[in-house]
Amino acid sequence: MSPKLTELLDLAVTGGPAAAPTAPAEQPSITYTTSIDPAFTIGPKVHGGTMQMIIARAASRAFDDLAPGSPDTSLHAADLVPVAIASDYLAAPDPAPVQVTATVRKRGRTVTLLHVDLAQNGRTMVSSSVTLARPDSGPSRHSSPHVLDGLAPTPAADALRIADSPMADVIHLGAALDTALDTHSFPAARGQTGDPVVRGWCRPKGAEPDADFAVLVCDISPPVVMNLAVFGWAPTVQLTTYIRREPAPGWLRFAATSLEVGPGMFEEDHLVVDSTGAVVAQSRQLALIPAGVSAR
């Protein structure tokens, strides 16, 4: 990983293991802390996918740190991925230290369920349920055509590099990862409108992608409503991410789409495939139309 990603995911234990205050004694909890660099912000606030990535890492760490009592002592976090992460966004934290508390709700031989809260200054910012399980591997039983079919495994020559565009003034992630947009599916960059579909490529700087990074990529696209000439901060209400398998080396390709853009809310789905074309992650979020935008 890039130094900034490595530092971000280097969680320090600050409390626990202990019984969670609001849970039975058999549901232990542990608290970690990390400091979020301004590189992981959209405007002044922390990027939502970055917070989910931290939450996923905390759940994996807690699986090992709270290992006593495991029904399968041969299973370790390295064998698992966060196959499902459901996050409710309660407030938007600043780039500063955060505390992440993970509580084991169920530890099983197939899946383990944890509750994870990300807090800042004593206030819960994101509350999540994380399911850990073994990832898929090998060929799929069935694959349907999808929106990323035909997009090359590496950025096209005319791809819009976010770090080299005016969007870098708002999207600050370029210090930790490389992101390029398919210009043909982002007419907003040309001052035009089109369907709420954005495709592109993403990878960590100086490293290969892993399952943790795929979590971040499931929230990497600019809001698809920009293609409808709707601009501004679109706050995430809820985001659910599924990690299907560990990605192969190389660029991850992503597509963000929306079926229904309402006057006040819209859903945005991410599909993420690796360099081989295998589906590695999917997500759906419910977001708010930027404040001050009127329905037409």
Please characterize this protein's 3D structure.
The protein is mainly β and 296 residues long. It has two domains: 3-68 and 75-133, Hotdog Thioesterase (Thiol Ester Dehydrase, Chain A); 160-288, Porin (Beta Barrel), CATH 2.40.160. Helices cover 10% and strands 37% of the residues. The protein is built from three helices and 15 strands. The protein has helices at residues 3-8, 48-65, 211-217, and strands spanning 12-19, 28-35, 41-42, 45-46, 81-89, 97-107, 111-120, 123-133, 160-161, 177-181, 197-204, 236-243, 252-257, 265-273, 279-288. The strands form two sheets. Strands 1-2-6-7-8-5-12-15-14-13-11-10-9 form a 13-stranded antiparallel beta sheet. The radius of gyration is 19 Å and the shape is globular. The mean pLDDT is 92. Residues 39-132 form the Acyl-CoA thioesterase-like N-terminal HotDog domain. Pfam families: 4HBT_3, 4HBT_3C.
Give short descriptive properties of this protein.
mainly beta; 15 strands; Thiol Ester Dehydrase, Chain A; 296 residues; 13-stranded antiparallel beta sheet; Porin; 37% strand; 3 helices; globular; 2 domains
